[in-house]
Amino acid sequence: MASYNLFLLPGDGIGPEIMVEVKEVLKWFGAAGIASFETESGLVGGCAYDAHGKAISEEDMALAQAADAVLFGAVGGPKWDHAPYDVRPEAGLLRLRKDLGLFANLRPAICYPALADASSLKREVVEGLDILIVRELTGGVYFGEPKEIVTLENGEKRAVDTQVYTTHEIERIARVAFDLAKARRNKVSSAEKRNVMKSGVLWNQVVTRIGKENYSDVTLEHVLADNCAMQLVRWPKQYDVILTDNLFGDVLSDIGAMLTGSLGMLPSASLGGVDATTGRKKALYEPVHGSAPDIAGRGLANPIAMIGSFAMALRYSFGLGEAADLLDTAIANVLAAGLRTKDIASAGQNAVGTKEMGAAIVKELGSLAR
Ligand code: NAD
Question: Which among 72, 253, 289 is the best mutation to test ligand 1's pocket, defined by most ligand atoms within 8 Å of the CB?
Answer without folding.
Answer: 289
